[in-house]
Amino acid sequence: MVEFQQRGEDLETNFAECKRLLEEAQGRLKELEEGRKEGEEDEEREAELNKVQAEVRKLKKDEKLFEKMIEEHRREEKKLPWNVDTISKEGFSKSVLNIKPVTKEETEKGKVEKHKTFAEKYAREIKHFGMLRRWDDSQKYLSDNPHLVCEETANCLVVICIDFEIDEKHALMEQVAHQAIVMQFILDLARTLKVDPKGCFRLFFSKIKTADKPYQDAFDHELELLKERVRSCAQIRMESAMKELEEEERHTRLGPGGLDPVEVYESLPKEIQKSFDEKNIQMLQEAISRLDPEEGKYHLRRCIDSGLWVPDSGEGDDEKEDDEEDEDEEED
To answer: Residue 193: how many CB atoms within 10 A of its CB?
Structure first.
């Protein structure tokens, strides 16, 4: 009974806060719209206007959702039977409350370890839940597996979404994303009511199966946002993997002097590039001879260090001798 009364007070508090934020957002929106009418248009102001408009739309949806939840709470209150808990103070002290105990904030390392252990232990069950399509099937599966009603399951479902998107299995990604939002809405509802998620997931399915348009629109909107984030994360992961692969390939093709043959080739004069394309040694020698001696030696050394040019032993000795002579001259 104490829990029920506290839930009602929390709903009223959250509703009042939502209304306050909505009034503030509407005030900012009015200022921005008036500024646009007066001709104060620029990209930054327009972006801010779009952001505030989206915030107002979301807060209006939240306001309607809180109104509905308060109405439901009041209807439930009327149905409560008279008993010891409702009329006796002693009854309050002995009531067993279904409230999740407050624990110390977990460290980041502990959260990661907890998520990893949970994901490994329940990987099959989580994936199965992700593939369910009907509300009734999802509700029954969570009733049979209440341990899945938690933050770790929501996180695992998002990871599965990203993996499917990387594999270009877009339809499967969208299916699992739907179930990830189902779990997220259950967790959000539990936070709003301040109860254990395992004790309120049936309420979510009851609401969503008979949802009015604002609640369904809110669900669909969050689903689209998640799919966009999944696509973005998948793209970032693929780009990162490509960069790692390119770096590995670059490392494996480095020449004896530690230079990348591709980069060296692209830096060479056109005539020298052509000699390598045609694998013509005479053309290479002629192209180098037409360059300034220092420039020719520079390009030749880079070709050798990158492995583009592998001189025979005589040429290598000559090159080394030339370098030593240059050093002697500098010392003199």
So the answer is: 22
Q: Are the CB atoms for 215 and 208 separated by under 8 Å?
A: yes
Over its length of 332 residues, how does the chain's per-residue pLDDT go in tens digits?
666 677 777 777 778 878 888 888 888 888 888 777 666 567 777 888 888 888 888 888 888 888 888 888 787 776 665 444 443 434 444 344 444 544 555 577 777 788 888 889 999 999 999 999 999 999 999 999 999 999 999 999 999 999 999 999 999 999 999 999 999 999 998 888 888 888 888 888 988 888 788 888 889 999 999 999 999 888 888 888 888 877 777 777 777 777 878 888 888 888 888 888 888 888 888 888 888 888 888 888 888 888 877 776 444 444 444 444 444 444 44
Residue 205: both structure tokens together: 């399915």
**Residue 275's closest CA among 266, 286, 291?**
286
Q: Which residue has the tokens 């390598």?
A: 276
Amino acid letter, 114: K
Q: Which of 76, 108, 69 is nearest to 191 (CA)?
A: 69
